[in-house]
Design a protein that fits this description.
The chain is mostly beta strands. Helices cover 2% and strands 57% of the residues. It has one helix and 16 strands.
């Protein structure tokens, strides 16, 4: 079983605010497989954000710890998110990035290396562009990486006082997580029957699928260092196959599908994110707030909550 961390799938976005193709299926026992606090696609820019050879950044945010739908049980993970990243200039146009997440795993809280990536920059007239590829270095006993993320980013100056950032990316996901299911009624209420519904147990879930992310930000620049006020529209979501077993190895039965241990998940969410990016030559501070405006889940319930946080970069 992989370390505990939400997984991803395929989000269909049309334009800036239209999400299509995310039709609810049926209630499933698992929590939302994709993360609502993703390290990428927030404050993404196609310009290099540091001036020397290396920069170190940290972020602290409050995120949702909403119950698993239909169970009343808290979802896996802490309401407080802490992560760290390092940017290193390999060449004039290429950066190496590494991302660590202080996450809750099956063995308890731990700092894990979540992503390693390369970012390539180029400019055309008054526009900057970047292409990023990132991989999850965790080994799941198969050939290749369990997660692979590809993204295109652009930054354009509209006027001396306004600029815009755009990012879109697709991700392949093979991840797993574990959650506790209480005895009897809670499992039945979620629409899923287990081998022995009168006993509490742990359920292991493996999610295999694709995910797509989207970000579009408008920035109002208020000083020569390009400090700015920003408002961003973000979308994320997924389509996966879910394979679920109890810790003892018995598959979970999904009566709607008539199959043991396998079902599908489709879901997505659109956020509005706003904050202040305060830039100085040796550091960057970004306090931010993210508010969910629309969420698609199999049971139709909204689980995401407002996120508050701050990012600090020393460069």
């Amino acid at each position: 079983m992989d370390r505990t961390r939400p997984a991803g799938g395929l989000l269909r976005l049309l334009g800036a605010a239209i999400l299509v193709g995310l039709v609810p299926l049926h209630d499933v026992l698992a929590q939302r497989p994709f993360s609502v606090n993703d390290p990428f696609y927030r404050s993404e820019t196609a310009r290099r954000v540091f001036h020397d050879g290396i920069a170190v950044a940290g972020e602290v945010a409050y995120r949702s710890a909403a119950p698993v739908a239909g169970t009343g049980v808290a979802a896996t993970g802490s309401a407080l998110s802490v992560n760290f990243r390092i940017h290193y200039a390999l060449a004039r146009r290429i950066d190496l990035n590494a991302f660590w997440d202080a996450a809750n795993t099956s063995g308890g809280p731990a700092v894990v290396l979540s992503w390693v990536g390369l970012k390539y920059y180029w400019s055309v007239d008054n526009a900057d562009y970047a292409f990023r590829v990132a991989v999850d270095p965790a080994s799941d006993g198969r050939v290749g990486f369990p997660q692979l993320d590809l993204a295109f980013i652009s930054t354009k100056g509209l006027t001396p006082l306004f600029s815009t950032d755009f990012a879109v990316g697709i991700r392949r996901v093979r991840k797993g997580f574990r959650q506790f299911v209480p005895a009897g009624a809670a499992a039945i209420e979620s629409g899923v029957f287990v081998d022995e519904p009168t006993q509490s147990q742990f359920i292991d879930t493996r999610a295999i699928g694709m995910e797509m992310h989207f970000m579009w930000s408008y920035n109002t620049i208020f000083d020569p260092a390009r400090s700015n006020l920003f408002v961003a529209l973000m979308g994320e979501g997924g389509q996966y196959d879910l394979l679920e077993t109890s810790v003892g190895g018995s598959p979970v039965f999904f009566p709607d599908d008539g199959e043991f241990g396998e079902t599908e998940y489709r879901g997505g969410i659109i956020w509005v994110r706003s904050g202040i990016e305060f830039n100085r030559p040796s550091y960057q501070v970004i306090p931010f707030m993210s508010v969910p405006v629309k969420e698609w889940t199999p049971d139709g319930d909204s689980e995401a909550q407002m996120q508050l946080g701050v990012r600090l970069m020393v460069r």
